[in-house]
Sequence to fold (111 residues):
Amino acid sequence: MEKLLYRRQFIFANKEINSFKSFVKITLSHHTGTCFLYHHPDLPVIREKNAYGEYILLGYILDPKNPLFDNQAILKDLIRYESIDTLVYSCKDYNGRYAVLYLGNTGIAQV
Fold:
């Protein structure tokens, strides 16, 4: 039962948290400092980088136009955009239960 507690949840913080021992911890360095992403082991997490920044996809994302695309393929398609505004607008075409974190030269954003 304990494994089901907070299943598929995540925490994004600017300070370390020691309360969630079973969560996976990812340390993210950014030009403004260090932040921490904690996620339940059952939550799918995909990371990609390009010239504009780092992108982290948490959860499940679906492409109704391309049902055979997996999370990795969809994230690679999303990160071809160079602005956060375009990234946010492009997410409207996808379904699922997901969040995209963007750590770029201009700051940090969550879609």
Notes: The mean pLDDT is 87. The longest helix spans residues 71-78.
